[in-house]
Design brief:
The structure is a single chain. It contains 2 helices and 5 strands; from the N terminus they run H-E-E-E-E-E-H. By secondary structure, the protein is of the alpha+beta class. A 5-stranded antiparallel sheet has the order 1-2-3-4-5. It starts with a helix and ends in a 5-residue tail after the last helix.
């Protein structure tokens, strides 16, 4: 996955669903923020940020062929953009009424 492709997805900012939190896959017990963005041809890109860290990571890309594990740490500028998107998504989905 090259940096230009990742930047295009982040800048297009097509958020797919509410952001979530989950435990890190290691035994640290830290929580991770998870943000999903739409990619090309209905790909789903999962970005994660572990509590205590500043840089987001592109964790996986899911497409019609399955899930590709990427685990690529992003730079400062893209991480700042993802943090902003995450905040906006949290606000947006928190204000939506919950369906019964």
């Amino acid at each position: 996955m090259n940096h230009t492709d990742i930047a295009r997805i982040v800048l297009a900012a097509q958020i797919k669903g509410a952001p979530t939190r989950r435990n890190a896959p290691d035994s640290s017990g830290r929580l991770m923020r998870v943000l999903h963005l739409a990619g090309h041809s209905d790909d789903l890109w999962a970005f994660t940020l572990t509590d205590g860290h500043r840089d987001w990571c592109l964790e996986t890309v899911t497409d019609q062929h399955g899930v590709e594990l990427i685990c690529q740490r992003l730079g400062r500028r893209l991480s700042v953009r993802l943090s902003t998107l995450h905040g906006q998504a949290v606000e947006h989905f928190a204000l939506r009424p919950v369906s019964p």
